[in-house]
Structures are given as structure tokens and as C-alpha cells.
Amino acid sequence: MFGPTLLLGTGLGMVILAATHAVTAGVPVQDAGLASGLANTARQLGGAVGVAALATLAGAVAQAQPAAHGAQAALLAGSQAAFFAAAGLALLCGLVSLRLGPQA
């Protein structure tokens, strides 16, 4: 768990700084605080809604598993569904960010 957690923390640190810079780059100086605040609010709200949606998905998939497989198998199936959904969403966001990047 230490390796992936360290990698995630490092990556998120770099992405959040780059995203904040991208949000405030074209904004007039007097509105930079507002733009930064809106970006941070969107990030926090997105995280909260994302965790709630993924937990709901995990619970729904876990409850749909046959009782004969056991509780641990149901929990594993729900967790896998949530992780695959999060990975798919991250891939989609990455592709969108490439499309929205600077136009040369």
C-alpha cells in the first residue's frame, strides 16, 4: 500500500498545482482569487460526489452478488466495479484534457 499511496500523493500534488495554474493563467489579477476559489470548490465537490457515487456503485454490485459466494466475494466484486469505474473516469478525463490542451 505504501508504494501506490506515495505515487498517488506525488501525482496529485503535481496535478493540483498545474490545474490551479491553468485556471488562474488567463484571469485578470483582481479575479485570480475568485477563479482559484471556484476551482478548489469544484475539486472538493467533485471528490465528495465521486466518492459517494463510487461507494453507491460498490454497494449495488455487492448486493447483487449471489449469497452462495459469501460476503467477502461480494465485497470484492463491488470494490472491483468501483475501481474500474474510477479508472475509466480517470482515463476519460485524461483524454478530454488532452483535447482541451493548448492549441498550437
From TrEMBL:
Residue ranges occupied by any Major facilitator superfamily (MFS) profile domain in the UniProt entry: 1-104
Transmembrane parts of this sequence: 41-62, 74-98
Keywords: Membrane, Transmembrane, Transmembrane helix
InterPro entries: MFS_dom (IPR020846), MFS_trans_sf (IPR036259)
Membrane disposition: Multi-pass membrane protein
Single GO molecular function: transmembrane transporter activity
Protein name per UniProt: Major facilitator superfamily (MFS) profile domain-containing protein
Location(s) in or outside the cell: Membrane
Coiled-coil annotated residue ranges, if any: none
Gene Ontology CC, one term: membrane
